[in-house]
Amino acid sequence: MILSIAASVVSCQSDPAIEPADIILINGGIYTVNADRSWAQAAAIADGEIVAVGDNDAIAKFSGADTLTIDLTGGMALPGLHDAHVHPLEGGHLMRSCDLSNIHSSADAVFEHIRQCAAESDDEWVVGLGLDLSLFGQSGPDYAALNEIAMDRYFYIEGEDGHSALVNDLVLELAGFDSDTPDPDKGVIERRADSNEPNGTVRESAVVIVGAFRPKASFSDERDAMQDAIKAMNAVGITSAVDAWAGELEMQLYKSLDDSGELTLRLVNSIIDEGVFEKHVGEDFERLLRIRNDYSSDLIRNDSIKIMVDGVLEGETAALVKPYLELGHSGVLNHTEEELQTRVARYDAMGLQIHMHTIGDGGVRNGLDAIEYARQQNAGNSASRDLRHHLSHLQLIHEDDIARFAALDVSANFTAAWAHPNPWTMVLNLPVVGKDRVDRFYPIKSVESAGGNIVGGSDWTYGPLNPMESIEVAITRQNVNDEDAPVGNIDDAVDLQTAIEMYTVNAAWLMHQEDRTGSIEPGKRADIVILDRNLFEIPATKISESKVRTTIFDGQIVYEDQ
């Protein structure tokens, strides 16, 4: 148990020659994640900075009359955790919408929850997030079930993958989708088996088209949703993050919170590129690139660009090196190879960090090829040096491309929480890609062994937010809720030290803030998370059960478990 205790408990008197600390931690378990991966017993924090790390006696000298002392007995302190791929605003809205993210038992249970949500609100639109598509098969659910709930409401139910949605016939009419409508460019309108009539499931760019009709929230509501999301992130120990789908609204919200002293997160905003799921196009996009630093601050960087290279396996839109089984195609590349290389070379020359969505091995290869091309084109351009590009998700990487991450100095940003045989994998992916490829999903250890920098991202709201779940799966390669669950690709499991590094020092380096965060060392900012148990002293299958007791950001306590 972690307690705030009187300074007199510390074993010796404070030294009058030393400025008293604001906070001291004693009786650790402090895993510093410094270069030596050393442990410490105590640490002192003053003015938002870690000023000393050592044993109880050494840190007792920093205790003063107003010093807060936190006893770590039975627990563990870690550097503040970094989520290198997350969607905070969407997470804030998830908490305020019809949340389906924890319903995995049956399709009936899903629609019963949607029915309850509809009954609890008089809003014209029923918006749900987190739909488990593995409950519905390859073509997705049908809007007929929504019509049984209400015929006069607009339904928008987004899939858990963020690349698909179920809408009813009223929304299809708004979008102009009917039996004569061809699939939009880079999108899919699923059809009923006995006709060409849309069944209500849409994918990729079609999601953007129908989603544009949803009612717009006020700036105040958006700000509240963002603040809720950041509080939720702090509550699981996250103090730094890469927003993986940022536009001007997100940048405005972060800056507003920062200006009022309410921002408790270090941020890199990956501005979404034109192509798919874009938020700005044409001159509006170019304008945002020009003014992006108007929204920057000591806590906020806006010099990253997000590119959607391909789609997802469950919609057969992820790009593959070899075709999908029995489908005769290899998925979708959102840009031709030449287009992608041209775009990446341009952004690289501008000094923008490239952040790519890559699910299939074909998408990964095209992403790496584009970065290699950019490096060659911009070899003499100082702006393109040390940008620390990264590819995210990485469900499937061809064996020939594993070593290229290290060779090109491209970080592998894994969504580790998905690295087990979940229903999406076994029901939706296995039939279309085959066992051989499924057995190679999420090759985390392979990239790390080949010298690549590996980091972790939650992809929340499309994955679980808690980093402890991702760390556990990276080690066990099985469902955190079932110790008897099947294990997937155990050869690519990593150990606990490596998994922690993914969410601390490795991600701090990715975010260009390794001099400020990622380890508990004097001179770094005091971003620290305190857990209720020592992860190194429990079975790996219990890691996800650990709880955050306290989160410290920039020397201030921003979360306490009551």
Q: How is the topology of this model organized?
A:
Elements lengths: L2 E3 L17 E4 L3 E2 L7 E2 L1 E5 L2 E6 L1 H5 L7 E4 L4 E4 L1 E6 L1 H7 L3 E2 L7 H13 L5 E7 L12 H4 L6 E6 L4 E4 L1 H7 L11 E5 L6 E7 H7 L7 H17 L2 E9 L1 H12 L6 E7 L9 H10 L8 E9 L28 H13 L3 E6 L2 H17 L12 E4 L10 H5 L2 E4 L8 H11 L1 H4 L5 H6 L4 E3 L10 H10 L19 H7 L2 H6 L17 E4 L16 E6 L2 E5 L2
Parallel strand pairs: 2-7, 9-16, 10-11, 11-12, 16-17, 17-18, 18-19, 19-20, 20-21, 21-22
Antiparallel strand pairs: 1-7, 2-5, 3-4, 5-6, 8-23, 12-13, 13-15, 14-15, 23-24, 24-25
Helix pairs in contact: 2-7, 7-8, 10-11
Written description of the protein model:
With 562 residues, this protein is α/β, with parallel strands linked by helices. The chain has 3 domains: 1-79 and 518-562, Urease, subunit C, domain 1 (Roll), CATH 2.30.40.10; 124-211, Diaminopimelate Epimerase, Chain A, domain 1 (Roll); 217-517, TIM Barrel (Alpha-Beta Barrel). The chain has 18 helices and 25 strands. The strands form 5 sheets. Strands 9-16-17-18-19-20-21-22 form an 8-stranded parallel beta sheet. Strands 10-11-12-13-15-14 form a 6-stranded mixed beta sheet, sandwiched between helices. Helix 10 links the parallel strand 18 (300-308) and strand 19 (353-358). Helix 2 (88-94) packs across helix 7 (219-235), helix 7 packs across helix 8 (248-259) and helix 10 crosses helix 11. The radius of gyration is 24 Å and the shape is globular. Residues 1-13 have low confidence and may be disordered.
